Prior knowledge:
- There is one protein chain.
- By secondary structure, the chain is an alpha+beta fold.
- The chain has one domain (2-148, 164-224, 260-287).
- Helix content is 37%, strand content 9%.
- It contains 11 helices and 7 strands.
- It has helices spanning 34-42, 93-104, 106-112, 118-128, 168-176, 179-188, 190-199, 207-219, 253-256, 260-267, 270-287, and strands at 2-4, 12-13, 144-145, 150-151, 156-159, 229-235, 245-250.
- Helix 4 crosses helix 7 (190-199), helix 6 crosses helix 11 and helix 8 (207-219) packs antiparallel against helix 11.
- The longest helix has 18 residues, at 270-287.
Amino acid sequence: MTDREPDYRPAAERPGGLIVVVLLALLAAGFFGWRWWQQRQAESAATPAASVVAPPATPDDAPPAPPVAQGPQNQVEDIARPDEGLPPLADADARVRSALTELLGGKNVAAFLQMDGFVRRVVATIDNLPREHAPVQVWPARPTAGRFALSGEGVQRSVAPDNAARYTPFVRFAESIDAKQAATLYARLYPLFQQAYEELGYPGKYFNDRLVAVIDHLLAAPEPQGPLAIRVVEVKGEVPSEKPWVRYEYADPKLESLSAGQKLMVRVGLDNERRLKARLRELRAQVATARPGAPSRP
């Protein structure tokens, strides 16, 4: 969580980005702080986002994809049959943009989403959310105006009381999306998501099962009460700087040890977190097709 202290100018914040063509862009994930956007500005943009591949998850930092022997547990064809004649993943941007525009409206697509390599961005980001880091290069959302607001001075600070208000418009956007329609669109385009997931290094694994597991992980995020204490740690380099890089950490070790996705859920504020969880539960009810006690699919 390294970044440069702001120049008292609005920076930008990455609002969310997982509309798995569905709503996961709104879930919670996409609420990376302004520091991530600034970090992105400092990084090289030479590598196209669509070509960035996240390393496979491990049991230590993320819930693993289901074993191949079990077969798909949450079959998307139980939601809707995939469209026939889908273009190859590398050529799918126009088709995906058209479908998202129909669902969300062109204004929202332009305002919130990063459409080049969108499917790959979504899949990589979802796969990364239960880990310690979710690389900004693959996020499927555009930055929005705003600044991560802190109260106090010095090393020990807290999240400002009005910080959560910056997320409210995006939460309302999430609440405006029909979960059933979003899940149906996701199922229609599903072969693209499956291909992108296998490209990450999960041949034979089923992306929708991973999606359900990640939603469950986000729903398990804690809901701390009161102001969140933040520790500001200066990152010293070899060359002194008037505007040193700093790392923002939760003062509570339990919060600081959370995954990237759960930290995002906590950061949006208690009310917004609960509202987003309500939307996630609605989405999960649409995409989690496995029934308790149902036999594994072949």
